[in-house]
Amino acid sequence: MDVAILSEAVATIGFPAAVCFALMWSNRETVKHYERVLLEFKHTLDKNTEAMSNNTVAMSILSNRIDLTQRS
After folding, report:
1. Which residue in 6, 38, 50, 59 is deepest, having the highest Cβ count within 10 Å?
2. pLDDT tens digits for range 45-59
3. What is this structure's pTM?
4. CB atoms < 10 A from the CB of 21, how many?
5. Distances from the Cα of 71 to the Cα of 1, 29, 66, angstroms
6. In the chain, count of helices (H) and strands (E)?
7. Domain of 67?
């Protein structure tokens, strides 16, 4: 938010109302930022879940191969 716009708002509607609007704007921008961060975090969790699933399959295959070699 530009200082000139804030100064004009204070002069026009008064300090308490201008601060209220400035805080509402700041809160809205913060929520938008958190939504982007949470979406990025969700994508990261999805990738990690997929990687863990792949690792589980690989460990199962390796375990079966080890069992087969130990039996021979």
Report:
1. 6
2. 999 999 999 999 999
3. 0.62
4. 14
5. 72, 63, 9
6. 2, 0
7. 3-71
Six-digit token string for 13: 């509607």
CB 18 within 8 A of CB 9: yes
How many structural domains does the chain have? 1
Neighbour count for residue 56 (Cβ, 10 Å): 10
- Which DSSP category does 40 fall into? H
Please name the residues in contact with 56: beta carbons below 8 A apart, sequence gap of 6 or more: none
Cβ of 62: how many Cβ atoms within 10 Å? 10
Q: Give the residue carrying structure tokens 């204070």.
A: 10
Give the list of residues 6+ apart from residue 34 with CB closer than 8 angstroms, or none. Answer: none
